[in-house]
UniProtKB/TrEMBL annotation:
InterPro entries per record: Nucleotide-diphossugar_trans, Trfase_1_rSAM/seldom-assoc
Name of this protein: Glycosyltransferase
Pfam families to which the protein is assigned, alphabetical: DUF2064 (PF09837)
PANTHER family, sorted: GLYCOSYLTRANSFERASE, SLL1095 PROTEIN
Organism listed in the record: Hymenobacter crusticola
Length: 199
């Protein structure tokens, strides 16, 4: 079974897109985040025959939160840095019998069902698939078994993450496929670039 893992936050004022909120305000940032989540859900919904789990960054008291992801198993992210959280999510998927697992966030409006399908297709003949983000990170990571080294000794949320991950993959001798480069929405500049493409 193939597994899709989504890292998300509950859409609550002041707790999402904080870098963006510093520029456009918390309310506007929340609206952007809700739009991004809806887009991510649409991309994931088009993917069939795949087990889907959403890993939430924090608990919520909102009864509507669970119903917002109706086709997804729901889990809470463990403590630790981003690498430790992602490693735990992959480990859980493989423990459940996944033959391939792909992880995404909710920050990439360019992500489509076709990208997700291409990622799983690539894993039929490769060890690793990575979707490069324009900021030097990645918007998607997939593998056929857990490679813990990919989550260790990384400066998360910096422009060095993708290069460091690919260097680890090369050191491990992994067969890697790169998807098209897309842009995450983290800053007002990112938001403006996205809106410009919608015109």
């Amino acid at each position: 079974m193939q597994h899709l893992l989504v890292f998300a936050r509950h859409p609550e004022l002041g707790r999402v897109k904080t870098r963006l909120a510093a520029t456009i305000g918390p309310a506007a940032a929340l609206e952007v985040y809700q739009e991004l989540v809806q887009h991510t859900q649409q991309a994931a919904t088009g993917l069939t025959g795949v087990a889907k789990t959403v890993w939430f960054a924090e608990p919520t008291s909102s009864p509507a939160a669970a119903s917002a992801w109706p086709d997804f198993e729901q889990q809470g992210q463990p403590s630790g840095d981003l690498g430790q959280k992602m490693q735990a999510a992959f480990a859980a998927a493989f423990h459940q019998g996944a033959t391939a697992a792909v992880i995404i966030g909710t920050d990439c409006p360019g992500l489509t069902t076709a990208h997700l399908a291409a990622a799983f297709h690539a894993l039929a003949a490769h060890d690793l698939v990575l979707g490069p983000a324009a900021d030097g990170g990645y918007y998607l990571l997939g593998m056929t078994r857990l490679h813990a080294e990919l989550f260790q000794n990384k400066a998360w949320s910096t422009a060095d993450v993708r290069a460091a991950t690919l260097a680890d993959a090369a050191h491990l001798g992994l067969r890697v496929v790169l998807l098209p480069t897309l842009r995450d929405i983290d800053t007002a500049e990112d938001l403006a670039a996205w809106r410009a493409t919608e015109q």
